[in-house]
Design a protein that fits this description.
The complex is a heterotrimer.
Chain A: H1 2-25, H2 31-38, H3 40-72, H4 76-91, H5 94-105, H6 110-117, H7 131-155, H8 159-167, H9 172-183, H10 185-200, H11 204-209, H12 217-226, H13 231-261
Chain B: H1 2-27, H2 44-51, H3 53-86, H4 92-99, H5 101-104, H6 107-121, H7 127-151, H8 155-163, H9 168-197, H10 200-205, H11 213-223, H12 227-259
Helix pairs in contact in B: 1-12, 2-12, 3-7, 3-9, 3-11, 7-9, 8-9, 9-12
Chain C: E1 13-22, E2 25-35, E3 40-44, H1 51-59, E4 66-71, E5 74-75, E6 87-89, H2 101-111, H3 116-129, H4 145-157, E7 163-167, H5 175-192, E8 195-200, H6 203-209, E9 212-217, E10 220-225, H7 227-232, H8 237-242, E11 247-257, E12 260-265, E13 270-274, E14 284-289, E15 295-296, E16 304-315, E17 319-325, E18 331-337, E19 350-355, E20 361-363
Parallel strand pairs in C: 3-8, 3-9, 6-7, 7-8
Antiparallel strand pairs in C: 1-2, 1-4, 4-5, 9-10, 11-12, 11-14, 12-13, 14-20, 15-19, 16-17, 16-19, 17-18
Helix pairs in contact in C: 2-3, 2-4, 3-4
Classes of the chains: A mainly alpha, B mainly alpha, C alpha+beta.
Chain lengths: 264, 262, 365
């Protein structure tokens, strides 16, 4: 037991603590913190991050809900096949996943070539190096998280409630809209939270698939370290990002606990 | 309605697998640029990959660091999981949350903090140190798998062994580890995969010398998108697929282990 | 520090004041017993009575909060389980699923670094003892429940321990098999002369096999003694009811004289019975008598008598159980052998019963 904590302490906690204390209080003091946050680049990045993350969360939710629903009601071969299609991307390296979409979405990429040779478009569509590219790429990466979370919740929805509803005369759509959807509310919330939390920390996909003006917070942090060597800013932005992440996790933790309290 | 749903799900499944499949196909294409569908098939990109010194070195580093991370994470994770499952510790939930912290903190932040410290200590590019850092992010996966595995090992089997006069060492070597073997191997496989695929921490910590495959791909992508990258990606996909396959076949073995005797 | 198990002694085990608390609850409350070498000693009680916890403390898997465990004069309280040298058999067998039968039984010998030829000999003997000689190379999955249990027993005795602990070993087997196994276990125990501590909730099982039984309830030992003694002369109502059917007629004591007392029941019946310990006239007590001690008819003046209405006759196979109302609040149960003779009264008929004073015990709460 002890080695696990020792290792964690040294390799994980220590660097973080050291980094924050050293970089934050190095020179310039605490006033600098506010100026970093208030700088135009950072504010834009925060805005872009929030906006993109919200978009991604919405897309993932809309795309993933039906899949999770399908999985929750199937077994056997179909179930395994669909799970396979979710799991394989999930475990594939993010760089490979991002690269694969770059191949698909580029101006000379697979999709554009196909559309052009089919005569559907004249000039190639700008699917890459913009917000659209980022959203597609991040949705692809984060979809499994949503599906798995939703699936877990849906699995525990009591079928009998649905039968009771239709027995009381509700039609198919009404049963879904008024009974199933609200019951899956908890899964939607936790899934959305997880996806949002993960997206705000993304930098690989936006860096590769975004345009020059699409900067997310994590990208700024990386640039501060690699390019401008501005450790102070990096520390400030990291602290900000970490704080937001922890708060959101606390919310997530709270709603999962509350649910258990409600005995579901 | 059901048919629409089934149709949608099928489309989505194709969409999910398409990027990966396309990359693999591209890796075998004969043309010098990205052409889909490929007109000719060839292995030249793989040859290019393995023939290039820098790619080979990246492969080597990925394997070594992966092995180190796998060993460290699996060993430490095993003992931590055992302690959590068997010992009556008070703050179990809290401890578990702490051990899962690396999952919560955004990897970028972890990465630059590690880089900060490593730069001071001159450990950038140190393979052993990188392996340790990877082990930290691999640990949660290992823990989750091994917690479930060890819970499936009947505690009475351990009591029986002790009552029969076995030392603690013998208990571990002859009883616990053999029974938990499928789970341990699974955990090791996923720990290896986590390290092999890891990009963000490696970006900062590998420096110039010890670049891993994902890092090299990242660097190459900033310069040009050439088919060699497709070949490398195909190799990465292949390794992922291999791990998943091995894990699936381990499931049967695992079921046999814990099913009998009770 | 030497890690090997201690060599076996004669097998005398003494528990003094063993106590275990979980939170505020005393799961085991000051349990004491002196167990003789070669004795078959059962811990009997309902679930939650603390008997398994006590056994686990004897085995060394749970540390007692208070009390001591002494084996052949040596204090074992702090000795770790792997050094105690007791054999142990669990309810779910705990056979190692990744080893075959031979390796399972050989396990304790390997732990003691016994030489291979010696291992082969002793495993062979142990398997013969449980009649599994031809199963040596079978895997665990190929064994039935009863066979697995016999492997567990062979494994627990192969290293010749002086003391063997058994935790409801036959609980998972069906009834017929259970009885045969009881006989087998008892047979092995007597042949090898081991001390056995046996935990069970089945009173028939305990009475069938034990030299002495300790009845436990809520963590305390209610009574210790040979089966016939605690059956015929229970120390209190709990023991009386647990070991079999019991009639308990409540009332107050009227006279006490030299080990005998008179009891006036609630419905006014005057009965006599033996009394152990002290009691005062006026005290509340219950008259205890086993149903099989009752007989139909008026009986002679020296016996306890009662008249009543036959409420129900139940056919239980070898026994006919008759329930009789002898007062507005009192019922008696009478068990008669299904010998083919006997009364053939119908429910509602008047019936008289009697039973010897010698088999009546007055129990104070």
């Amino acid at each position: 037991m002890l080695p696990a904590f020792a290792m964690l302490a040294f390799v994980f906690v220590l660097p973080l603590a050291w980094f924050f204390t050293q970089a934050l209080f190095a020179e310039g003091g605490i006033q600098q913190i506010a100026s970093v946050i208030a700088s135009r680049a950072v504010l834009q990045a925060i805005l872009a991050t929030n906006w993109i993350s919200l978009l991604v969360t919405a897309c993932v939710l809309l795309a993933g809900y039906p899949i999770a629903y399908y999985l929750a009601n199937r077994r056997g071969l179909r179930f395994t096949l669909v799970v396979f299609c979710i799991i394989v991307p999930y475990f594939t390296s993010i760089i490979v996943r991002t690269y694969s979409w770059m191949v698909l979405l580029g101006r000379a990429g697979v999709i554009n070539r196909l559309l052009q040779s089919a005569g559907l478009i004249e000039a190639p569509l700008p699917l890459l190096y913009n917000k659209l590219g980022i959203v597609i790429g991040m949705t692809y990466v984060l979809l499994p998280y949503m599906v798995l979370t939703l699936f877990a919740t849906m699995k525990s929805i009591d079928r009998n409630l649905l039968l009771a509803a239709s027995g009381l005369g509700a039609g198919g759509f009404a049963v879904f809209w008024r009974v199933y959807l609200p019951l899956s509310r908890h899964g939607i919330l936790s899934g959305a939270l997880i996806v949002f939390i993960l997206s705000i920390g993304f930098f690989i996909t936006p860096a590769l698939m975004g345009g020059p003006s699409d900067v997310m917070v994590a990208m700024l942090i990386e640039r501060s370290v690699e390019i401008t060597l501005d450790w102070k800013s990096a520390a400030v932005m990291s602290l900000f990002l970490l704080a937001v992440t922890l708060v959101l996790y606390a919310v997530y933790y709270r709603i999962t606990d509350l649910r258990r309290l409600m005995g579901a | 309605m059901q048919r629409i749903l089934a149709g949608y799900v099928t489309a989505m499944c194709l969409l999910l697998m398409a990027p990966i499949v396309i990359v693999v196909i591209l890796a075998f294409s004969g043309a010098g640029y990205l052409q889909f569908p490929p007109t000719a098939l060839s292995l030249r990109w793989f040859a290019r990959f393995l023939g290039d010194d820098q790619w080979r070195a990246a492969l080597w580093y990925s394997l070594v660091i992966g092995a180190i991370a796998c060993t460290i994470a699996t060993t430490i994770g095993f003992f931590a999981a055992y302690a959590l499952v068997r010992r009556p510790i008070a703050a179990k939930k809290l401890l578990l949350s702490l051990l899962l912290l690396p999952v919560i903190v955004p990897t970028v932040i972890t990465a630059i903090a590690m880089y900060f410290l490593s730069a001071r200590l001159g450990l950038v590019g140190n393979v052993l140190w990188i392996g340790c850092c990877h082990a930290v992010v691999a640990l949660p996966v290992v823990l989750l798998i091994l917690l479930a595995t060890l819970q499936g090992v009947d505690v009475n089997l351990e009591r029986a062994a002790l009552s029969l006069g076995s030392s603690r060492l013998r208990l571990f070597l002859r009883v616990v580890v053999p029974l938990a073997a499928p789970g341990i191997i699974s955990a090791a496989l996923f720990a290896f995969l986590a390290s092999f695929d890891e990009l963000i921490i490696s970006l900062f910590l590998t420096g110039i010398r010890a670049q891993t495959l994902p890092v090299r791909i990242w660097n190459s992508l900033h310069m040009q998108i050439e088919p060699t990258i497709a070949a490398v990606s195909a190799v990465l996909i292949g390794i992922t697929g291999l791990v998943l396959l091995l894990d699936a076949s381990l499931r049967r073995w695992r079921a046999a282990r814990t099913g009998a005797g009770t | 520090m030497n890690r090997a198990p201690l060599p076996a002694g004669r097998g005398a085990l003494e528990l003094s004041g063993l106590t275990k608390r979980y939170g505020n609850e005393r799961v085991v409350d000051s349990v004491s017993a002196a167990i003789r070498p070669g004795e078959f000693f059962s811990l009997l009680g309902p679930s939650g009575s603390g008997k398994t916890t006590t056994l686990m403390m004897i085995a060394g898997f749970i540390a007692p909060d208070e009390g001591r465990i002494t084996v052949d004069g040596a204090d074992f309280t702090a000795v770790p389980p792997q050094r105690r040298g007791f054999g142990m058999v669990f309810q779910n067998y705990a056979i190692f699923p990744h080893l075959d039968v031979f390796e399972n039984v050989a396990f304790p010998l390997r732990a003691r670094r016994v030489a291979q030829p010696e291992i082969r000999r002793r495993v062979g003997e142990a398997l013969e003892l449980v009649r599994l000689e031809r199963f040596a190379r079978r895997t665990v999955r190929q064994l039935s429940g009863g066979q697995q249990q016999r492997v567990a027993i062979a494994r627990a005795i192969v290293f010749q321990p002086a003391i063997v602990l058994m935790d409801e070993p036959l609980g998972a087997l069906d009834k017929n098999l259970r009885y045969d196994m009881q006989v087998e276990i008892k047979d092995i125990q007597q042949r090898l002369g081991m001390t056995v501590i046996y935990v069970t909730h089945d009173q028939e099982e305990a009475m069938n096999m034990s030299d002495r039984i300790a009845i436990m309830s809520s963590g305390r030992v209610e009574q210790v003694g040979p089966p016939d003694l605690i059956y015929e002369r229970p120390a209190n109502a709990f023991v009386g009811r647990f070991l079999g059917e019991a009639n308990l007629l409540e009332g107050s004591i009227e006279k006490v004289h030299e080990g005998e007392a008179e009891l006036r029941t609630r419905d006014g019946l005057l009965l006599r019975g033996r009394i152990d310990g002290t009691a005062q006239p006026g005290q509340q007590a219950a008259l205890f008598v086993r149903p099989e001690k009752l007989a139909g008819g008026a009986g002679d003046a020296a016996a306890n008598r009662a008249n009543g209405i036959l409420r129900r006759r139940s056919f239980l196979g070898s026994v006919i159980r008759t329930t009789i109302d002898i007062g507005p609040t009192t019922q008696l149960t009478m068990d008669s052998p299904n010998s083919g003779h006997g009364l053939h009264l119908q429910p509602g008929a008047e019936i008289a019963v009697h039973w010897p004073v010698a088999h009546s015990i007055l129990l104070t709460p």
